[in-house]
Amino acid sequence: MSRRGKRAAEIQEAIATVLLHDWDPIGVSDVPAAHDEYNSYVGGVYRLLSSAASEFEIIHHLIKLETTSMGLSAGSPEQLKDVARKLLELKVSL
Hints:
Order of helices and strands: HHHH
Number of domains: 1
Largest sheet: none
Distance between the termini: 14 Å
Number of helices: 4
Strand content: under 5%
């Protein structure tokens, strides 16, 4: 694997970890078989982070995933601030 490919995998893993352990709207973080549950959302979050999205934009994206993709009730924007901040702290440059 190239250095760039390895870095991309590290970034994807970091985003997936935050989604699983900090966001986890369906409560599967304690289920080892479900640790890939949110992997399909990593790409969209990465695109936001790499385009210097704001905290508000990240929160809006997570709410849209919860309501549109998962069919859940929207989480509180206030509760999602910590998740958005953790995502924004990630270094996503290749």
